[in-house]
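Reposting from the mailing list since nobody answered there.

I have sequence plus structure tokens for a pair of proteins and want to know whether others read the tokens the same way I do. The first protein:
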Amino acid sequence: MIDLHCHLLPGVDDGSRTVEQSVAVLREWSAAGVREIALTPHLDASRVTEGPPPAHDEAFAALSHAAPPEIRLHRGAEVMLDRPLTPRALATRRITLGGSRYLLVEFTRMVSIQTAATALGQLLDAGLVPLVAHPERYSICSVGLVARWREMGARMQVDATTCFMPTGRGAKARELLASGLADILAADNHGDRRSLADPYRQLGQTGGEAQATLLMVSNPAAILADDELIEVAPFKVKIPLMSRLKGWLGTLQQ
């Protein structure tokens, strides 16, 4: 498996705080079959002139020295598109996923449709491919809107564990999978227990082996190789009855 969205670069954002914390997660992932990851700390576009700050370079060096050798580490960032990136930042590709043309991006949760379209268009015009992080989080998210973003040329990263949550956000994530609009799944780990291992297993157990492989192996590998992605066939994710009941009871108690 390959995970292209995590906050395991230690001590630089709201994710892992120490090298030791990151290494503990990486060891668990290695045992579960994760072989490559992209470290994607939060970065505001308004604060990027050319590449990541020096503190990120130092943290990467420290983690690379201590990380399990079975997992290959790639650089990247999760870029908050609060303003257009500078031409220099667009050209150097120092914040893209593994130096590819794919850039992991996010918006504020209440972003407007027009603001998001303008931001994505700027990246596409510059020759980059925006990979929208967790589209299921945004208030404007709908199957129709995400389909339009993909028609523009953007690609979608859905949070893997969210797909199995009995929540409104989980329902949105499942709708995207059922409509064939997800391109990759990622854990969005922040130094915690989130992993691709359980979602990969759960998809496989419910008849989604081919989709699991595309979403968590083949398409992430294609991104790192700067290749085109393969379309993922629509798939309806089923969550256990007890999980659905817990989600329903939680809604009643709110």
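The second protein, same order (residues first, tokens after):
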Amino acid sequence: MIATLDHRGPDDSGVFVDSNVGLAHARLSIIDLAGGHQPMSIENGALWITFNGEIFNYVELREELEKKGHRFTTRSDTEVILRMYLEKGEECTRYFNGQWAFAIWDARDRKLFLSRDRYGVRPLFYTVSGDDFVFASEIKAILTCPGVNREIDLHGLDQIFTFWVTIPPRTAFKDILQLPPAHSLVLRDGHISVRP
């Protein structure tokens, strides 16, 4: 999957795999060129993230978190997201000013938390194929997975011809959805919940 997206991040790539969870990242280095490798973890691997975007107010958030006792090992906005999640949980997104699509694997609670920025600048697509939950920043990465339905969604196609885009969560593919702008998704114990 990540090989199909290497054009999105020519500077670095990484993979994290743990039992039945896998995260991969192709990185375009903008902030903390040396220390922003992803997937990134904190708290001895309790939290992992793959993140596309930029948090514009990360410097201010970092200062607030440092006052609360958080110790940073990088200068990246990616670590700020993880530490805000550690501090605020799923409500962390309320504090971000920026554009993002990210996934956090919370090994403590065995849950996956996905979020997309308020305007949907950064894309985030997902599907369920058998027992597998698969997500990516481009549909073509999802289509590399065996068993993923590639059937065209005629309603999605109609939306493209009418509006030039599909209306989230619909895409041009029947069983592949996009997380709507300003929404988060939680996958836990096989159950998916999406909320604004």
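Reply #1 (J.P.):
I read it the same way you do. The chain has a mean pLDDT of 90.
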